Amino acid sequence: MEGFINGFFGTDGIRGTPGEYPLTDGMIFKIGISIAKFVHYKGENKEAPKVIIGRDCRLKGKRIESILTDAITFYGIDVLLADIITTPGVSYLVIDGDADMGIMISSSHSNSHENGIKLFNAKGFKLLRSEEEWIEYIIFNSIINFPNGTQIQDKGKVNVLRGAQSKYSNFLMSTVRGLNLKNITIGLDCGWGAASQIAPKVLEDLGAKVTVMNDRPLGGNATLGGGVNTSYLQKLTIKPKINMGIAFDGDADRVLLVDEKNNILDGDTILAIIANYLITKDKLPKNTIVSTIMSNNGLKKSLKKHSGHVISTKVGDKYILDKLIKEGLILGGEQSGKLIFLDYLPTSDGLITALQILKILIESELTLSELAKCIEKTPQVIIDVPVREKKSFASIPKIAESLDLFKSQLRDKGRIVLRYSGTKSLVRVMVEGKKQIMIENIANSLAAQIKKEIGRTLNGDNGIRY
Question: Maximum distance among all alpha carbons in the chain?
């Protein structure tokens, strides 16, 4: 199977529109069967193997859960239903419950009509690419036999995993043991998602006064607020006496913050605050963190002031995790607000991130805007261009020529990154440099060239600039 790639998995699981490939009912059932076979092959020969399934509040989540459950139990594996939970919550429950695999039904921050399937192994890690390829191989090659050549005779059982949210909530509070938020007022946007039933209670149990919005589990509103659109939260946090705004995406594996002056703090700023804090406490191994090629150069400069370092990887939290493990590090993240705290979980967790920032806020006795001064961003423009195909940029002469021209103009005073999204049919054009007008012109020119060569119209939207 080495080298087998079908493109079924993106950078974060399988995503699509329920009812359309690859999330038709038939394909979902095949995915469930492949998961069951994977567990039998890769499991530790337990007498009663089990899989935990959680979901966020997106449309069709319950239906996907039902189809996966039928397929997995058909092959003799027990299923524990965690109901509505965050993606990192599933990772934790797998570890805590000694399960063979975890499944999260979510498409994170994608459009509300979309959904997806994320998979975790028995250690709570997202599957390796080689493991994803193995599952793809089963799906598309119809392997039907188990290692011993026999078929499973007894169906697995289905049970509700009682107290799943409480277990995860207690774990979250254990990561900031002793934290008292009695003098802190928080604006909270749950993004109509999985954090709705967890985050408000955790923060209130820690003593905070919480003003909450978008906290009903309405998957149809998934892109109306939360980490997808912080304008709702900014209207809330503009009120006096709110110390910090917190915005989660649908499955709460990422978070964006709003300071008391109504400024948005992205993952780069959050990483800089936490990394610099840990360095001053001598708690950051090798004074080093891991981020991605999309992170602002200001992050490296921020850490450099404290003799810190940043290792860059491809975009995707699985690549960050891999580098953290290989280098013996504990902290990494993406500009999008996905941060991994390897001391606590092997996956990104928006709630853990928010709690760590609150801990620093209390201990430092500074405001969030004062903490954010530790990083000075380099001007950066990012444009998303919907595309009809994903061809090598080097194979498209006009794009390659434009890229070479603009790189020569920037020289060593900036950089350009062109990359295809791992979850959507689009190109991300990132240009960074010292002069805002110059990088905007370059980014817009490249975006226009890409649109002309391989672009497609997406509901009248030709790109989004951040």
Answer: 68
Between CA 219 and CA 393 the distance in angstroms is 36
C-alpha to C-alpha distance for 15 and 4, rounded to whole angstroms: 20
Residues 176 and 248 reside in one and the same domain:
yes
- What's 153's domain CATH number? 3.40.120.10
Q: Could you give the 3-state DSSP secondary structure of residue 388?
A: coil
Give the DSSP H/E element, type plus range, for residue 38. helix 25-42
Asked if pLDDT for residue 122 goes beyond 90, the answer is yes
What sign does the CA torsion over 278, 284, 288, 291 have? negative
Residue 207: the pLDDT is 98
Q: How many whole angstroms separate alpha carbon 232 and alpha carbon 375?
A: 25
Question: How confident is the model over 410-431, as pLDDT tens digits?
Answer: 988 999 999 998 878 899 999 9
Q: Which domain does 336 fall in, by range?
A: 167-374
Residues labelled catalytic: 108
Assess contact for 310 and 267: CB atoms under 8 A: no
> Within this chain, do residues 360 and 425 fall inside the same structural domain, yes or no?
no
User: pTM for this one?
Assistant: 0.92
Residues with Cβ within 8 Å of 369's Cβ and at least 6 positions away in sequence, in order, are 259, 260, 261, 263
